[in-house]
Amino acid sequence: MPRDLILGTAGHIDHGKTSLVKVLTGIDCDRLPEEKARGITIDIGFANLDLGDVRLGIVDVPGHERFVKNMLAGATGIDLALLVVAADDSVMPQTREHLEILKLLGIRNGLIALTKADLVDETTRDVVGLELRELVRGSFLEDAPIIPTSAHTGLGITELKDALREMCLRVGSEEPNPLTPFPKKEGGTEPKTVLSPSPCSGPREAPLTGPESKQGGVGEGLQPQPTPPSPLPEGKGEQARDPAVFEATSADNSFSPFPSGRGDGGVGSSPPSANAHRGGSSWFRLPIDRSFVVQGHGTVVTGSVVSGSIAVGDELEWHRGDGTTDLVRVRGLNNHGRPATEVHRGQRAAVNLAGVPHEQVRRGQELARPDYLLPSKVVTVRLFASAEGRHGIKHRLPVRLHVGTSEVMATVSLLDCDTIDPGQWGLAQLFLSEPVTTVWGQPFVLRDSSAEHTLGGGQVVQPTAAKVRRRHIEAIEQIEKLWSDELQTRALAVAWFAGTQGFEPDDLVRSAGVEPNQIEGLVSQLTTSGKLTELAFASNRRLLIHTERVTQLEARVLDTLGTMHAENPLMTTHDRQKVLARLDFVGDEQLLQAIADRLLRTKKVVGDTRRIARADFKPKLSANQRKLKDKIVEAHVSAGFAPPEPKEFANQAGGNATALKDIFEVACAEGFLVRVTDEIYLSAKAETEMRRRVTQRLQTGPGATVAEIRDLLGTTRKFAVPVCEYLDRVGLTKRAGDLRVLAEPAATG
Ligand SMILES: Nc1nc2c(ncn2[C@@H]2O[C@H](COP(=O)(O)OP(=O)(O)OP(=O)(O)O)[C@@H](O)[C@H]2O)c(=O)[nH]1
Ligand SMILES: [Mg+2]
């Protein structure tokens, strides 16, 4: 099975990148009329090179300083770089800038082509070679071969192919990933611990160690820049959307949506399975770099597959770059102009999508497995200020964020310092003018707001973040934990930030760099050890919450119950709904019910689905007094409107008048009895019935006398007078001469 990898060119304008790709592949990546006319590359172009056991997708980038943003879109998702330097020109500004960008993007493998070798003598070549060695010292290209080539004489082309093949085989066995974090030796000093308030400069005492090899909410913004840059490259304009431009091209520009069967095009005897490839166990993701229309088939989008795989017929989420998404179906697939049944990481892909209007597709959008990515206007990052930069990166600096194929205006909020000095790291949040879709560990690049210089870059630590207060030590410590080598530590930090809202297991792929096949094991370790708590809801909802947060919520429920017990010391239990209603700021009724159930299960609370009390609450009545209370309630229920007098129970209360009063008050507080006077209590049921009858009677006619109300209730005058006064008191009736009328005429009881 051939190995698929993506190679990107890099280097200063006119140094011979496109010419070199052409002699290597026979494909001219400069396709646009404007590119032809001006003799320069404007936007990224594509080619492919079959080296037998290695298949390379090639992204050729422009060297012009004005088109660095296109270079950045092309460099996303590449596995290897081919740094091109003209022997007659040596190291130039974009040689440096492109190399810096490749380093920031975490590219770890590459070769150097010393082009136009036919134009210089041996001595010049050697001098330029020395300058190059100096340039790449300490970078991923430090030990890369420098191969003199000529697109005109063919010098070095065979050697270059051999070197490429050899490197690809080595890279394949190293299992690289485009989301590899910044290699330590190139990244300057790692972020310091955050407890020091000083600027991010000077040596760090306790460096944050990041993993050597990893894979891959909205807060208040700090006023991002108003106008996001145009999604289309300068000079290309609508031409990029012109199907004719693309249909005429080779590589992945020509699209034929129907696979022509197994073994087609030298791909092998069967389509490779998703897991047979590096990153194959990850979820699919493709940052879109172009789109076009194919007559009769509709919209086709292209990009480098940065993780996972897809097959024809799959459903994907189309992230439109404005925070909205749509589910779309893969109607057909192409890889370098050949139909394919599936495409995977390391391949260029052209995806024919059903139901996607072409005019709505733009660079910077993404296709991904549904529910993998989440757009966010705030991301938390580890940020490195380029050693080349003069001023470092200051708090509140307006910048351009380049991540994936998107470019978005942003404002930097430095969390642990005021300035990141050149060559240093810091922790930051980026507040964006448009939402972006990122994953944990994803590299990005920052350029200045006028798009003239590369300022730095780093890795995403929180793809969807809420605003963190600067120098908030606890939050910053948790952010540092998100960069731990340990999956468990990262997952717990995710849980910490998710708070009482919790998170779903699958979120860990995006927010902690956990491989999908590691989720179950990780979650079960964390729940078994009691660090995470899983709450299952009736609705099949499965939420993971940091156990500390669960404990906090439990404490809140207990506190609330405690307050209610203190407010009503006579009440033995409280209405569960009313208790939880006092915590409605938590904003999740299901969660509170689950917490109450846990408290019942762990016997910190007693009761049932209706009424609850703290297990440690000491009710005011003894067990015997409670029995008497039940008896009294019973007697009142059966007596209706002719209730017994309290003193009838004095003997049973041991002659203790205060205790007897308490018993009646508890019965009232618990809602069983209603006090009319100290001598008259009604059962709650009788009181409700009384209100109903009186209301009904008074709804018609002039009103009713006390005698009439007495008859209505079938009781005595001695009882009727205080009852009428009670009804006045509670606002149901009022006096009108000798009569009682409804206090609110419209009241219906
Ligand atoms: N003599 C000589 N000329 C070369 C060689 N390679 C490229 N050129 C010439 O250099 C000029 C620029 O070549 P390109 O391949 O377009 O350079 P590029 O790096 O792709 O330029 P941009 O994409 O615009 O950054 C063209 O006129 C080429 O013919 C070479 O090996 N020898
Ligand atoms: Mg070119």
From TrEMBL:
Residues 2-177 form the Tr-type G domain. InterPro entries: Beta-barrel_SelB (IPR057335), EF-Tu_GTPase (IPR050055), EFTu-like_2 (IPR004161), G_TR_CS (IPR031157), P-loop_NTPase (IPR027417), SelB_WHD4 (IPR015191), Small_GTP-bd (IPR005225), T_Tr_GTP-bd_dom (IPR000795). One of its GO terms (molecular function) is GTP binding. Signal peptide: none annotated. Residues 172-278 are annotated as: Disordered. Gene3D superfamilies: 1.10.10.2770, P-loop containing nucleotide triphosphate hydrolases, Translation factors, Winged helix-like DNA-binding domain superfamily/Winged helix DNA-binding domain. The keyword GTP-binding applies. It comes from the Bacteria. One of its GO terms (biological process) is selenocysteine incorporation. GO terms for cellular component: cytosol. Keywords: Elongation factor, GTP-binding, Nucleotide-binding, Protein biosynthesis. This is Tr-type G domain-containing protein.
